[in-house]
Amino acid sequence: MRVAIAQFNPTVGAVQENGRRIQEWMGRARQERVDAVLFPELCLTGYPARDLLDRPGFVKRVSAVTQELVAATPAELTVMFGSVGMPEGPGLPLTNDAVVARGGREIARVSKQLLPTYDVFDDARHFRAGSPSSVFELAGQRVGVTVCEDAWADSAEMAGRYAVRPVAQLAAQGAQVLFNLSASPFNLSKWRRREELFRELAQRNQLTVVMANQVGANDELIFDGSSVVCSPSGQVLARARSFEEELLVVDLASGAGTQSTAEPPPSLSAAYSALVLGVRDYARKCGFRRAVLGLSGGIDSALTAVIAADALGAENVLTLAMPTRYSSPGSIADAEALARSLGVKHQLVDIDPIFQAYIDRLGPVLEACGPAGAGDVTFENIQARVRGATLMAVSNRTGALVLTTGNKSEIAVGYCTLYGDMVGGLAVISDVPKTMVYELSRHVNRDGERIPRSSIEKAPSAELRPNQTDQDSLPPYEQLDGILELYVEDHASLEEIVARGYPREVVQRVITLVTRAEYKRRQAAPGLILTRKAFGVGRRVPVASQPEET
After folding, report:
1. How far apart are CA 49 and CA 83, in angstroms?
2. Is the CB of residue 256 less than 8 Å from the CB of residue 262?
3. Residue-wise pLDDT tens digits, 235-252
4. SS (H, E, C) 466-478
5. What is the C-alpha separation between 133 and 201, in angstroms, rounded?
6. 43 among known catalytic residues
7. What Å distances lie between residue 197 and 190, 202, 232, 518, CA to CA?
8. Which residue, 233, 267, 229, is CA-closest to 250?
9. Could you tell me the sign of the dihedral formed by the alpha carbons of 453, 458, 460, 462, in that order?
């Protein structure tokens, strides 16, 4: 059997456009003379469509385009694509379906049985679980079809979560080939494990597994593609490229195809490619052609600028240096050097007169409120908010998307200013710990200096007061990031973190800062997800809370 995997990038909600592109991919598969072509999960709606699925008009449009696609299927090609199943009766929710069609008619429809509700997933909000499916004949072989999570039930990660094992059910019916339609998001811990899981699945059930994964980014979620075909022995017969659209063709008997097996990139390369794809798709799918961001001369804004230039083209990126009296000449020079290196447009906007006007006007008002206490940051935050207002003014005039530059370490502990450096439409590196910011910056410079070496080597500083460094307010980043990974990603308790060798008083302080900063994060721009647990849609922590145990 010759099969094709259509690893393509749908836009959420663009049903007509997605349907048109599905037909294009069907045509390409037909030219390859394959027996079947497999598309990703919910490729017609884009995944996740979230509460668009609550709109009856949207669902009816999906149903109509589904029927158009079925009618367009050629007689010699079996097409499997992801769509939505309409309720079978009043009051019933939708189903998450794999539609199997050939020769203008629907020959099977398989509904997703396992509906994840953990982390970023919320399938049970919109869908009901499907019934067990049956195998059917295709090109002389017995095949079964599953949708995404249905293939994860036997994995160690899901132990005890599900009682139903859809793949084992199909194997018991004699399935020889398993097709899996997926929309499995990228994170640095999961993306390699996903392939291992499908290899184990194929070997355990002694069948060939063909998995099509969505590629592209939708809001915070990045989909790496990396679709794969595994033999019953667990061997990878074919693998699609990561972070790119591709039509992968493979003969299941011989493993031969039109594409060689693409090796997955190293983790740092994958992380960087994911961020570039995330920025590119967020801008494109939201209707932005250009981006603007502030350049401080530091490493965070430098890395964000490089990502933006690679994602959108240097000609579509505008950077602003916005110094005050506390900005060092070296930082201003580093910002200019970076802009020259990247070829982006760059402007220097001296905001110190605006800052001084705030001091003059607000000084008496603030004095009437009482004396400044220890650690007062009123005027530090005013500088950040002037910068935020400046970036938004440029955005209003040019229509450019404002990119924020805060990293995960800072956002975790609230080392950021609401309505200041948090202003923007997309938080590009908000799930990148500071230690990884350094790693990615060195990765960016592996073939030549794009980010000035001084930006990487100097002590990080917000430069909002004389001789300020981040470590005046925070633990060393190596220590902070280790604690944050245990607390945020592993859900470890204070005692468990202390047992790993971290000082109790530091751990307690970090946990307190993370808890207190929740109100800031609730108002932050959406951020691209890289790690096992990001701040945002997959972490639902109350703002008004006083947790007694940590």
Report:
1. 11
2. no
3. 999 999 999 999 999 999
4. CCCCHHHCCCCHH
5. 18
6. no
7. 10, 9, 13, 35
8. 229
9. negative
Specify the DSSP class assigned to residue 259.
Answer: S
Q: Spell out the residues 6+ positions from residue 413 whose beta carbon is closer than 8 angstroms to its own.
A: 474, 480, 510, 513, 514, 517
**CB distance 440 to 428 below 8 Å:** no
* Long-range pairs, 536-543, Cβ under 8 A, ≥24: 536/220, 536/430, 536/431, 537/120, 537/219, 537/220, 538/119, 538/120, 539/488, 542/518, 543/518, 543/519
Is residue 176 scored above 80 in pLDDT?
A: yes
- Domain ranges across the chain: 2-256, 271-522
- Annotated catalytic, 533? no
180 φ, ψ (degrees, to nearest 5)? -125, 120
Does the pTM surpass 0.90? The reply is yes
Distance CA 26, CA 79 (A): 7
| Given 43, 112, 220, 485, the catalytic residue | 112
Choice among 43, 148, 230, 416 that is catalytic: 148
What tokens appear for 303 in the block? 């890395």
Q: Assess whether pLDDT exceeds 80 at residue 13.
A: yes
pLDDT averaged over every residue in the chain: 94
- Domain 271-522: which topology? Rossmann fold (3.40.50)
pLDDT tens digits, one per residue of 481-508 = 999 999 999 999 999 999 999 999 999 9
Give the class (CATH, top level) of 2-256. alpha beta
Tell me which DSSP letter residue 212 carries.
Answer: E
Candidate list 17, 24, 32, 41, residue with the active-site label: 41
Q: What are the structure tokens assigned to 429, written together?
A: 């590196």
Give the dihedral sign, CA 261/280/527/435. positive
Q: Give the Å distances, CA to CA, from 357 to 186, 212, 350, 379, 383.
A: 46, 58, 13, 11, 11
Among this protein's residues, is 41 annotated catalytic? yes
Whole-angstrom distance, CA of residue 78 vs CA of residue 74: 8
